[in-house]
Amino acid sequence: MRVVMFGYQTWGHRTLQALLDSVHDVALVVTHPRSDHAYEKIWSDSVADLAEEHGVPVLIRNRPDDDELFERLKEADPDIIVANNWRTWIPPRIFDLPRHGTLNVHDSLLPKYAGFSPLIWALINGEPEVGVTAHVMNDELDAGDIVRQEAVPVGPTDTTTDLFHKTVDLIAPVTIGALDLIASGRTEFTKQDRSQASFFHKRSTEDIRIDWNWPAADLERLVRAQSEPYPSAFTFHKGKRLEILAAVVSEARYGGTPGRIFYREGDGVVIVAGADARTGRNHGLAITRVRTEDGRELGATEYFTSMGGYLTSRP
């Protein structure tokens, strides 16, 4: 089939590479301009550079809503548009233009985790698996019929970086497998159960601020979810920002007030956690490695030279 690709960052790059390696013909690529936004500098392989290396025409747009772009798309005469990690709304006159419409590739197991940062949110929420879905685009966010979907398990120590590498390897088989189904003449696909849908927003500073009222298991997953190269989860100690680079759930149970710097356990220092910590039924978060405001990385037992005092959500 003749394909136009909309995409950005490594997700778009992997999608374009899969298309270039397939029997399908890439007629045009549309991508976003380079950005200095913190999250957009992560996994930032250039779609434009890859397209140009293979002699594929490229258009750079923040939004695909101008008449020039629409005319270029009509001239390209695509059988289908394939989109992955396109960051702005694609209007109906574009996604309905090709003979087979538009196939959107999303890094979650739809209908759950539509929207943004699905891997981070899924890890924080303790999901047992994550994956990639190719679905037919319609006028509702990530809601169209599912053409192909594949999952991978979430391991007990996986970080979001680990999950990124697991799922990015699914892009090629999911995308090309979906295109092959469409090219074969299939027109009926799996409808999403909208009662199971969930929608998530982009991550921001507030989303990585530690709230010691959370249970320790949730906080441990937050730390893993905000692994390098993502901005680390953080708290405050004596009024200064302290990033938590590694932590585990404590073996013992600790009672008291959330945020209390309490006890050395193995290589970690246990912080009391959970809104009902006063009951003494909760495990704590055993921090093992931190980064200080001036950029020093230290083991927790080296940083916390004495017990007592509190970690707080605000200075």
TrEMBL record:
<feature type="domain" description="Formyl transferase N-terminal">
    <location>
        <begin position="1"/>
        <end position="169"/>
    </location>
</feature>
<dbReference type="Pfam" id="PF02911">
    <property type="entry name" value="Formyl_trans_C"/>
</dbReference>
<dbReference type="InterPro" id="IPR005793">
    <property type="entry name" value="Formyl_trans_C"/>
</dbReference>
<dbReference type="InterPro" id="IPR002376">
    <property type="entry name" value="Formyl_transf_N"/>
</dbReference>
<dbReference type="InterPro" id="IPR011034">
    <property type="entry name" value="Formyl_transferase-like_C_sf"/>
</dbReference>
<dbReference type="Pfam" id="PF00551">
    <property type="entry name" value="Formyl_trans_N"/>
</dbReference>
<protein>
    <submittedName>
        <fullName>Methionyl-tRNA formyltransferase</fullName>
    </submittedName>
</protein>
<feature type="domain" description="Formyl transferase C-terminal">
    <location>
        <begin position="204"/>
        <end position="306"/>
    </location>
</feature>
<dbReference type="InterPro" id="IPR036477">
    <property type="entry name" value="Formyl_transf_N_sf"/>
</dbReference>
